[in-house]
Amino acid sequence: QVQLVESGGGLVQxxxxxxxxxxxSGRTFSSYTMGWFRQAPGKAREFVAAISWxxxxxxxxxxxxxxxxxxxxxxxxTVYLQMNSLxxxxxxxxxxxxxxxxxxxxxxxxYWGQGTQVTxxx
Length: 122
Description:
Layout: E1 3-7, E2 10-13, E3 18-25, E4 33-39, E5 46-51, E6 58-60, E7 68-73, E8 78-83, E9 92-99, E10 116-121
Parallel strand pairs: 2-10
Antiparallel strand pairs: 1-3, 3-8, 4-5, 4-9, 5-6, 7-8, 9-10
């Protein structure tokens, strides 16, 4: 079993940056593909970025490509999301989760964190 705790959210002006962290417990963290998802008010949860178990492969949604960078440190059991050039439309609750590579949608049978709020003001 894996427990995930996100942190690093907050209020930032448009054009600013934030770095989210997701700390995992459990010995098998390094074997999981990890992903970031987000959910804006009144909208469905959507895929943001994924990183393979080794960290070699990453994949991002078109909406964040070139602005957000996903990374991980398996020695620290942590996955990160560096968010640059933030826009008001990036405002959402951000979640980290285990996932399967190539399955870029949220699944109820994956492990999920509780989420962290990111608010981007214009």
